[in-house]
Amino acid sequence: MNKPLILAAAIACGLGAHASAATFAYISSPGDGLISQYRLDESNGALSLVEQVTAGDQVNPMALSPDGKTLFAALRVKPFQVQAFSIDPASGHLTPTSKAPLADSMAYLATDRAGRYLLAASYGADLLSVQPVDKAEPILTYKTGLHAHSLRTDPSNRFAYAGNLGTDHVLQYRFDANTGALTPIGTGFVSVPANTGPRHLAFSANGKYLYVVGEMSGTVTAFAIDGSTGALTQIGVANGIPARLNLAHGEVRDARNNDLKDDPTPRIWAADLRLSPDGKLLLMSERTSSSVSAFAVDTTTGGLRFLDNYPVAEKQPRNIAFSPNGQWLLVTGEKSDTVGAYAVSANGALKRVAQAASGKGALWIEVLRTQAQ
């Protein structure tokens, strides 16, 4: 790496003082290379654009450090890099600090639970990567099957899981928090039905269950996590695509089929998956129908039950994110000029309450509640 990614950010954040609590959202827009900062009023859902900062061409996935002091943003053009920003605790303002190389063009970015390592998945290069954020060491890379789409560690930070869309595998690893190394658990994966397309992941807060959205099936698969070994066992599947949407089964989208640009058939194209702060509600975005599906979660057994599907105003919604209090949902649309804020009912029903201007092709959302100082 060129230089440590977080040291400068930590120094900059240490200069802030007398901050009041606030909730901010950061949204990347690859079409104009911007990260837009929003303020969310958690008392009424009001959303306001604060400022936009230049991140770089094709800025895409982002990740917040666990301490909320640093935002990482991946740039999906050569030379593939990650840009780190320090976050002012009072204003939420982003200040660019340092850049470091990435292993390839990354579709997903996260940190481990301790904030020591940056985790990434490359859809085009079929690989996962792990790199330290506080020291200059080589990037660890792991080849996967076709189209790796996510990588996250579990709440205990002992295990890591990845959605491998093109192989219909959910990859499972032991994670070494001292070195960042990934070691396969058992065969290294569990399988889901053909043409499911495992994409994004969500963990229950207690670390007992993992949920995986199928991009092509519009289903969410629930797995139990063995607390000793990290091995996954499937415990259920819930379909989030009601018949009234009239969607055909999805297909893998990549350069081999021109990204389905010549296919007029409306197909399932699920994207993001988010668990409510209380763990009782799971929401999934679906791009073709511009909608969000809701599932009830049994917090005791980990089981899922489909509730309903709700349209959103944002066209082709890529990412969604809950507010920290769980009352509001932010929605971006890759083909929308606005970001929407929605009131979330107990059964997942959505009511749009606010909007703000978005960057071009807005997609990735990170939400941060700063603490009063």
TrEMBL record:
Gene3D superfamilies named in the record: YVTN repeat-like/Quinoprotein amine dehydrogenase
Classification via InterPro entries: Cycloisomerase_2, Lactonase_7-beta_prop, N2O_reductase_N, WD40/YVTN_repeat-like_dom_sf
A single GO BP: glucose metabolic process
GO cellular component terms given for this protein: cytosol
One of the record's GO molecular function terms: 6-phosphogluconolactonase activity
Name of the protein this chain belongs to: Lactonase family protein
Keywords of this entry: Carbohydrate metabolism, Glucose metabolism, Signal
Stretches assigned to coiled coil: none
Species per Swiss-Prot/TrEMBL record: Pseudomonas lactucae
Cleaved signal peptide residues: 1-19
Family indicated by similarity: Belongs to the cycloisomerase 2 family.
Record has Cytoplasm as a keyword: no
